[in-house]
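> call design_seq(struct)
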């Protein structure tokens, strides 16, 4: 039998999305005992989203949204948030965040798995993986980015070869039960009942949501009247045996001197879909804009 070339995908305990059996590496693919086979794409990701689980032909973020998000994240606008997130995830992976709650976790996994659910084009996944590698060396977790958008996963896989990337739905993460020590969901879509089934006691979900002042200056330009929302409380977490164990608010300001980048910022958020041509023209007319960034990072741990 030919030895498959190494791929970050081979280290991940995937299951077959059709029958739930473990997937084993073959040359250029992963295959289950029932011979369901899934090809590894030329850019290095795998698609484990069978067509019957797709609610649309091209689910998730579009190619243009992915491009816009990449421009904004590459410009460094969200870097201060990424830095705080790395600390929070690092302490949850090592267990140092558990002392305060008296929980000790699920035992010392040799190389735990970090799953970034709804990873987009992979900016935070890659930041997290690099931070954990630098700090934890051989104890660093394996990292997996999951998104339902093939455009997002393709962009991520093309740029970051050391990380495993999969097209799949948060609702059916194709992983062995108990595998993800930490799931991150960053401005994403949490599916608490499904994650509660997948994770064991002591494993966690780290969620990032927009706070009330997030991009308020941009929203003031777009909307005639401004709605200020508190971040969601995630009743779904508590209803599914997760306990909120930590909460960190991150607020900072960035000035953007580039109208195209402001439009990209609009495109990558739900405001892009909601704003008409006139609102976009008002944004485009800005030579620069000082923006508030406001996010809340919460750690929920499975009881
Ligand atoms: C607002 S974006 C956030 C992307 C990334 N976490 C970030 O902050 O840059 C939400 C992402 O969730 C993905 N998504 C939407 N529904 C999903 C689902 N059911 N399962 C997995 N990903 C999903 C979208 O394709 C999109 O990339």
């Amino acid at each position: 039998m030919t030895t498959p070339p190494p791929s970050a995908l081979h280290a991940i305990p995937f299951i077959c999305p059709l029958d739930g059996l473990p997937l084993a590496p073959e040359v250029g693919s992963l295959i289950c005992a029932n011979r369901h086979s899934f090809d590894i794409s030329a850019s290095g990701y795998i698609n484990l989203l069978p067509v019957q689980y797709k609610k649309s032909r091209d689910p998730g973020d579009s190619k243009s949204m992915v491009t816009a998000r990449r421009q904004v994240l590459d410009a460094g606008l969200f870097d201060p948030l990424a830095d705080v997130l790395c600390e929070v995830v690092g302490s949850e992976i090592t267990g140092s965040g558990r002392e305060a709650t008296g929980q000790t976790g699920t035992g010392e996994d040799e190389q735990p798995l970090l799953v970034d659910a709804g990873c987009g084009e992979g900016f935070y996944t890659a930041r997290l993986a690099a931070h954990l590698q630098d700090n934890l060396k051989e104890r660093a977790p394996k990292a997996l980015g999951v998104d339902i958008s093939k455009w997002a996963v393709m962009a991520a896989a093309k740029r970051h070869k050391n990380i495993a990337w999969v097209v799949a739905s948060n609702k059916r993460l194709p992983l062995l039960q108990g595998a993800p020590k930490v799931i991150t969901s960053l401005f994403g879509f949490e599916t608490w009942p499904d994650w509660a089934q997948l994770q064991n006691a002591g494993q966690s979900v780290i969620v990032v949501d927009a706070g009330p002042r997030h991009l308020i200056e941009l929203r003031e330009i777009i909307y005639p009247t401004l709605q200020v929302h508190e971040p969601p409380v995630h009743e779904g977490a508590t209803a599914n045996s997760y306990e909120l164990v930590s909460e960190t608010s991150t607020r900072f300001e960035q000035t953007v001197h580039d109208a195209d980048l402001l439009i990209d910022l609009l495109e990558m958020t739900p405001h892009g879909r909601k704003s008409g041509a006139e609102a976009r023209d008002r944004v485009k007319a800005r030579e620069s804009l000082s923006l508030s960034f406001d996010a809340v990072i919460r750690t929920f741990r499975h009881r």
